[in-house]
Amino acid sequence: MPQFPNAIHSKLPLVGTTIFTVMSRLAAEHNAINLSQGFPDFNCDKALIELVNKYMKAGSNQYSPMAGAIALREIIAEKTENLYGTQYNPDSEITITSGATQAIYTAITAMIEEDDEVLIFEPAYDCYQPAIELNYGKTIYVQLKVPHYTIDWKEVKKLINHRTKMIIINTPHNPTGAVMTADDMRELEKITAGTGIIIISDEVYEHIIFDNRQHQSVARFPKLAERSFIISSFGKTFHATGWKVGYCIAPQNLMAEFRKVHQFLVFAVNTPMQLAIAEYLKEKENYLSLGNFYQKKRDYFNQLISQSKFTFDNSAGTYFQLLRYGSISNEKDSDYAIRLVKELGVASVPVSVFYHKAIDEKVLRFCFAKKEETLEKAAAILCKI
Ligand code: PMP
Ligand code: GLN
Asked: Taking the domains of the chain in order of start, what are their residue ranges?
């Protein structure tokens, strides 16, 4: 028998199951109110479901074009130009993806080579780092500054060198609900000018932004847009996280590379949903009303919780609210979150999981994309602590 090397060598030895799966499972096991994983507990618009039905019945059930249904790409181009003032060509600069997760993985895979450095800001959404590692890139972590999770651009500048290939930003930001300002974007523009640095701008919460703030898409900044992949998701925008339909926008030279990967990763995304979303997007209110819709939920939850011992600053965007529990307990946030599920019946996400060094700031993330009655039940429990 020849000697074979051990066939299984993990490419991600330190990665376990995502916190969202872990917490949702724990919530189900303990019959707890689940404010952990980010998804609405109410249905998406019936009209949208009927549109999917219409297209299925009409026979739109075969492969869509590799880059996505053209009707959908066209209306995304129109929406992007109307909102952010930059024109993208639907033929060559927009691709429909299986959720934002696939778009992020695809953009990273298309760009990152061995030892390329990628800057990400922590606490960070959990899918960036594994995608970088799988492509043999190196993740460089920049910590957002508490209490408002802002970016220290001087620190960013110091970390940039000839190996820096990419910077990943996310605004509105998961898990903190922080929002980047126009000044932030101008700093990013200055720092990347004259470099070959590529940006991934994760804008899945572009429409979930509060208190009259304006979403600073990189598409508003031509010098950034020319080096950026912009990624969004209809899961967030249309309360349909289970449909896994999102998109990526980028200038033609970047998008050409993106599609080389996309065509072999998924080839194309499911057809009837793309066509339904394209038609549904014609009614602008369907996405423009989203900020108000979720602001009411945030205000409702925060008003209920104001009677509790938790402290917080209002979330500026996303459907997440951070709550600090330092005056209640000294436990590690992950232990405290587990105890909250098991003993009290409310599931949240400990923010330390979004740091590679598991920094514990005694903060938990709660998703308020829930019916009023769900928020009331959760708040009643949290207020008794
Ligand atoms: N980026 C961020 C910041 C997210 O919060 C999420 C999902 N919640 C995603 C990407 C992934 O989106 P999708 O479900 O469309 O893959
Ligand atoms: N983005 C969602 C969250 O932050 C969950 C996505 C997932 O479960 N993968 O909770």
From this structure: 19-44+288-383, 46-286
297 Cα to the center of ligand 2, angstroms? 19
Buried b (16+ CB within 10 A) or exposed e, 236-248: bbbbbbebbbbbb
Give per-residue pLDDT as tens, 293-316: 999 999 999 999 999 999 999 999
- Given the candidates 3.30.70.3450, 3.30.70.100, 3.40.640.10, 3.40.140.10, the CATH classification of the domain at 46-286 is 3.40.640.10
Work out which ligand 2 atom sits closest to the CA atom of 204: 1
Instruction: Report the nearest atom of ligand 1 relative to the CA of 173.
Output: 3
pTM for the structure as a whole: 0.97
User: Which ligand ends up closest to the CA of 98?
Assistant: 1
Residues with CB under 6 A from ligand 2: 18, 20, 37-38, 174
202 lines ligand 1 (CB under 6 A): yes
The residue among 96, 112, 108, 131 whose CA lies nearest residue 266 is 96
- Beta carbons within 10 angstroms of residue 354's beta carbon: 19
